[in-house]
Amino acid sequence: MRPSGRKIDEMRPISIEVGVTKHAEGACMIRIGDTHVLCTASLEERVPPFLRNSGQGWVTAEYGMLPRATNTRMRREAAAGKQGGRTVEIQRLIGRSLRAGVDRQALGERQITVDCDVIQADGGTRCAAITGGWVALRLAVNKLMKAGDITTDPLTDPVAAVSCGVYAGQTVLDLDYAEDSEAGVDGNYVMTGSGRLIEVQMSAEGSTFSRDEMYRLMDLADKGVAELVAAQKAATA
């Protein structure tokens, strides 16, 4: 039995609320169980120096957690004067994941920055950030197309992510914190809406896993991402 009482292939409740901020070109609050992430997409009519005069756009991301997103207060990284290694790793993951679903030539020479701020954490924050980040990106691109600034949709496929792992000897979908902290094996699966893999981060700690378990985890990830993409499409319809 999972701590939440869910079936092994059952996602936590998924909620995506759009239009939650006034100024951003695209914004949503994604809630996957008790993990809540605010995602905003900001458009700039410029690109990094290495892309100037290339005709290609750029999508990048930033990620952070509020001090009381967890059960004890964390010090703000700004107070420490630098970002932690985990933060840097996650925001790079978000950026390259979202870019995998973008035709940067069709986007044109402009940059969209997706900010993902964790309001409340209960496992799977990077997966929620990627999933919600795509929704914010979709809304920002919709505005560009409505204004006639671009004529071809640069978003080639939805991008979503889910965690899976081996908990209490069972392969399970969408780990919450209680499971993630005890799982012998856990992984993050980033995929497109058409089922193509973008990135798999999978590791064991205090345990090992078989190929059969790895394949079962992939099957669970397929199911979870399909549900997340359905929620993305419903939110942006």
Characterise the protein shown here:
This protein has 237 residues and is of the alpha+beta class. It has six helices and nine strands, in the order ββββαααβαββαββα. Strands 1-2-3-5-4 form a five-stranded mixed sheet. Strands 7-6-8-9 form a four-stranded antiparallel sheet, sandwiched between helices. Strand 6 and strand 7 form a beta hairpin. Helix 2 packs across helix 4 (125-146) and helix 4 (125-146) runs parallel beside helix 6 (211-236). The radius of gyration is 18 Å and the shape is globular. This is Ribonuclease PH.
Task: Itemize the secondary structure elements and their pairings.
Layout: E1 14-18, E2 26-32, E3 35-44, E4 58-65, H1 77-80, H2 85-99, H3 104-107, E5 111-120, H4 125-146, E6 159-167, E7 170-173, H5 177-180, E8 185-192, E9 197-204, H6 211-236
Parallel strand pairs: 4-5
Antiparallel strand pairs: 1-2, 2-3, 3-5, 6-7, 6-8, 8-9
InterPro entries: ExoRNase_PH_dom1, ExoRNase_PH_dom2, ExoRNase_PH_dom2_sf, PNPase/RNase_PH_dom_sf, Ribosomal_Su5_D2-typ_SF, RNase_PH, RNase_PH_bac-type, RNase_PH_CS
EC number: 2.7.7.56
Pfam family, one: RNase_PH_C
Distance between the termini: 36 Å
CATH class: Alpha Beta
CATH architecture: 2-Layer Sandwich
Strand-pairing-aware structural class: alpha+beta
Identify the CATH homologous superfamily: GHMP Kinase, N-terminal domain
Number of separate helices: 6
GO biological process, one term: tRNA processing
Subunit structure: Homohexameric ring arranged as a trimer of dimers.
Protein name: Ribonuclease PH
EC number: 2.7.7.56
